[in-house]
Design brief:
Helix content is about 10%, strand content about 40%. It has one helix and 27 strands. The chain starts with a helix and ends in a 7-residue tail after the last strand.
Length: about 400
């Protein structure tokens, strides 16, 4: 009987020790994870969504140490930008770690005023998880260092800060633009996109209250396409850059303040217009039809007076040789350039000057039945020591070799 009781007691002790040992081992495993370089458990990491801002806050702990915050995201491209936006915290350090918690390059260590942003660009592996540790930065801003407080953080696979609006452009249409500084609630830049309609595209800007503009074209892989358009000008004047592209692909344009001052000043925020064309003229250009032997009134106005400094006409060739006639009126020096239906220049331009009612012409070899375009601008030759680079004139064409009446 005693032996039976002792046997039961031994089994009971074995069960108690086993359960206690399991509980101890489980607790020890959790503690080890909490003391790792990455922080404690997965609940410590705030998940970031690409192209979205997430709020953050660094607080001061009881032992006078400054807190840190951890975030994680899954890389969506081989290049990612990590952005921070300052709020009540004005100096921030953000360090990127890979899946093994090894630092990836140098950290972002910066300072700035409320609502301004900073970023660091990193090469990563698409599909892998990365971690970001945010702490107080080392650099003081404006003589002070607010090493605790609120901020925002985000990641992008596009070369712009999170939640950037990208406006669609339509071929041959002007679109309103406006640059606002970060301190005024803007981003200091604007983004647009369009689908290329030809192998060559012109990107135009028209100045308004903003008088110095930089426009950079990016391809569908977000690589810059050649040099940017960096220019300045008076209100209502235009500038453009011509680019070789691939028809059917999507392109992006980033507009920022330009580097060149205009008239001794630089208005790096304000309004403007932007557009693109596959025709060698600015958006919304009116093209007037010509009929053989019928004079059409023409008028050139400067951009500052609401014009474009040029006029466009088109006609269908009626023979293999065509004469283009211009008759001077208040405008006494004129250049007329002929383009084929692929917008290639056909021979030399008609560039002449003359008194009112005087007629001049140029003869061109063309293809009957094809459409041709004529651009009329101010000529290079002054008449009688003066140049009327705006004003009125007449224009027509024919194949007879006799001046139209």
């Amino acid at each position: 009987m005693i032996q039976k009781i002792l046997k039961i007691f031994a089994v009971f002790c074995f069960l108690v020790i086993t359960v206690a040992g399991c509980e101890f081992n489980g607790s020890e495993g959790s503690s080890s994870k909490g003391n790792s370089e990455s922080g404690d458990s997965n609940s410590k990491y705030t998940v970031l969504t690409v192209d979205k801002w997430t709020s953050g806050e660094i607080v001061k702990l009881k032992n006078d140490k400054v807190d840190e915050q951890w975030f994680k995201f899954v890389a969506t491209a081989s290049m990612q930008r990590i952005y921070v936006k300052f709020s009540t915290m004005n100096c921030i350090s953000a360090t990127l770690y890979d899946t093994s918690f090894n630092p990836v390059g140098n950290n972002l260590n910066t300072s700035g005023d409320a609502s301004t942003t900073a970023y660091v660009e990193k090469n990563v592996t698409t599909g892998l998880t990365y971690y970001i540790k945010v702490t107080s930065g080392e650099y003081r801003y404006d003589g002070r260092r607010d090493y605790t407080g609120k901020y925002w953080i985000g990641v992008t696979d596009f070369p712009a800060q999170p939640e950037t609006v990208i406006t669609d452009l339509s071929n041959d249409k002007w679109t309103d633009g406006k640059i606002e500084s970060e301190s005024n609630g803007g981003t200091g830049e604007q983004w647009f996109k369009f689908i290329a309609t030809a192998a060559a595209q012109r990107v135009y800007v028209k100045f308004n209250t903003m008088n110095c503009i930089s426009a950079t074209l990016y391809d569908s892989s977000l690589n810059p396409v050649g040099n940017n358009l960096n220019t300045s000008g008076d209100a209502s004047t235009t500038a453009y850059v011509e680019k070789t592209v691939t028809s059917g692909l999507t392109y992006y344009i980033k507009v920022t303040s330009g580097e060149y001052r205009y008239d001794g000043r630089r208005d790096y925020t304000g309004t403007y217009w932007i557009g693109f064309t596959d025709f060698p003229a600015q958006p919304e250009t009116v093209i007037t039809d010509l009929t053989e032997n019928n004079w059409v009134n023409g008028k050139i106005e400067t951009e500052s007076n609401g014009g474009t400094g040029e006029q466009w006409f088109k006609f269908v060739a009626t023979a293999s040789a065509q004469r283009i006639y211009v008759k001077f009126n208040t405008m006494n020096c004129i250049a007329a350039t002929l383009y084929d239906d692929s917008y290639n220049i056909v021979g030399s331009a008609l560039d002449a000057s003359g008194d009112a009612n005087k007629t001049t012409y140029v003869e061109k070899t063309v293809t009957s039945g094809k459409t041709y375009y004529i651009k009329v601008t101010e000529g290079n030759y002054h008449y009688d020591g003066r140049s009327s680079y705006t004003g009125t004139y007449w224009i027509t064409f024919n194949s007879t070799g006799t001046e139209p009446q």
